Every structure is written in structure tokens, then in C-alpha cells.
Amino acid sequence: MSDLYYSIASSVSDIIYKEKGSKFIGYAYPVSSEEDIELALANVKQKQHKARHFCYAWQLEKDYSRFRANDDGEPSNSAGMPIFGQLQAFNLTNCLVVVVRYFGGTKLGVGGLISAYKTTAQQTLQQAKITKHTIDEQFKIQCNYDLINVVMRYIEEDNLQLIHQNLEMNCNFTLGVRKKEFNRVLQKFQKVYGLDVKHPSLEKEG
Q: Which part of the chain is the Impact N-terminal domain (predicted)?
């Protein structure tokens, strides 16, 4: 399983696509919760208050496990799913794409709508700055002073994140590592006599 995920760095607004008199306006937002999504949708609806259709799709979580598509009154699967398809095409999560439609008097048909919503979403995401992130695991280490040099050397060797350290009575460290390297790095620390390594997976093993 990949330990990478992709999102967008900042919002994109007012990307306009026209088809047979209808105007489609695209928006993209970085989001991390359904509350963020509701706020972004409310912002678009306030800005484009005369529009009838606010179709959208979003995807959440580092593992891309939560998503939704909404046609908002357009024929079934003619708007939300084409937008969602572009989230998948760009491999994005923690992202909301909204496409607003103003009807221009000429019906586009289901095929025309699918094409228009897909194209607007695509052009909107093409304007976004896409950022790459790693999925990391955290674990904790406790040791005596005489092992500090070993811990610091391992941190440097494996380019680990030093999230927290406390060098008082006992030395405590909270470290972060890419998920795909986690088991190897954890075992490396576990082999050092005197290091107390803590992680939920170790507690489950007893």
C-alpha cells in the first residue's frame, strides 16, 4: 500500500467554461473535514447566489477512504461523478471541487453535461498547486543518558522526524517515520538493549 497522498495547497476560484450558452464555474478547496466542506459550499453559494446547480465531489483521508459526489438536481451521475472522476484522475484527497452551472437556454443532454462538468473540474484542478505528502507513523522511545548518542545517530541515519524530546530524568523521544519504513526502523531500535520502544502495535502483541 502506498504511503503517499496528494492534495492541493490552496483554493482555486472562478474557472469558467462555456457550452452552448450554459456557463460552468469551477472551484477547488483543500479540506480536512465535512465541516470544512460545508463552509466552502456555503461560500460558493453566497458568491453565486443566482445559480441553480451547485454540483460537487470531495474526497477525504490520507487513505482516500471517504468520498461523495452530488448532482444537485442535474440528471443522475451527469455532474457529481464526472467531477469525482477528476479527483481520481489527479489522485487527490482532502479536496473539494464544486462546479456551478448557469443554464443558457439550450439543453446539453446527459452526454453534454458529463463532458461539461468533467472539463470544468479538469481545468479547475489544472490551476491548482498539487502537493505530495507522506503517511507517517509515530513511536516513542525512553532511555538513559548513555544511549542518547545511539538514538540521535539512528534518527540521522534514517532521516526520522524528531517530533518531541525531553532530556530530564529519563530521555524521552517521539519520532516519526514514513509508513513503508516503519517496521524496519522499529525493529532497528528494538534491537538496542536498554531502549524502551512504545507503539500501539507492540502493546497489541503483548
A: 20-125
